Amino acid sequence: MSWRGVGDAYAASYASLCAGTGVRLRELAGAAHGRTLLDVGAGEGTLAVQWADAGWRVTAAEPELSMRAAAARQHPSLSVIDAALPDLPFADGAFDVVVANFVLNHLDDPREGARALRRVAADAVIATTWAHSPSAFWADVTAWAGLAPRPAKGVAADKDFERTSAGFGRMLTDAGWHPEVSELMWTWRPTSEALWRSVDGGVAGAGAFYRGLEVGEQRRFRAAFDEIVGERASSGRVELTHTAAIAIDSRR
Question: Quick check: keyword tRNA-binding in the entry (predicted)?
């Protein structure tokens, strides 16, 4: 899955969804007390700014140019460096806490990425993945449109992990973590415009699927989207419940 060029569409849509873990992550990390934090895969910077506002000395790392550009426009005080897993350009234990929010699930080798996160963390490393994701909504739209889902290019079988909380924990254990895994469920309430912006802008698997359709198929997809939103929306918003698996390996 390519995230190239989707920064503005992501900022207008899924950024608010993914930020739903922010309060729980900060609770797990504890009080800042001026400690250092590395946010890996920081996207357009929403969570990184929240960490900074909570008193952390934050370094944000994001490899996608359009995401960094969106961060610069929305959060001009935030410095975002061009760096990606697994080749983080930092010394061992360089940061008190390292966080990767919905990042490992996108890597070709999640265990290699998890090892890299743990390497640069002195006190704690925290990571999340989806246990129940937005893909369920888009699967409904695809079925309503009478379109056949197309398997996305995924992680190779020998590198993948079971996309459950237990599977996430086992993968991290393989990578040398000693994880404590919990789940967080919340309801995201995007406008229909924000939801459509995500898919039309090529964000995530649904966006890649939509962009790969022929023009007639895209029209059917849009018509199905409008039908489902018309049925499910309340006050112009669609309620979508999601679950994240959140893992922490704390050395304190």
Answer: no
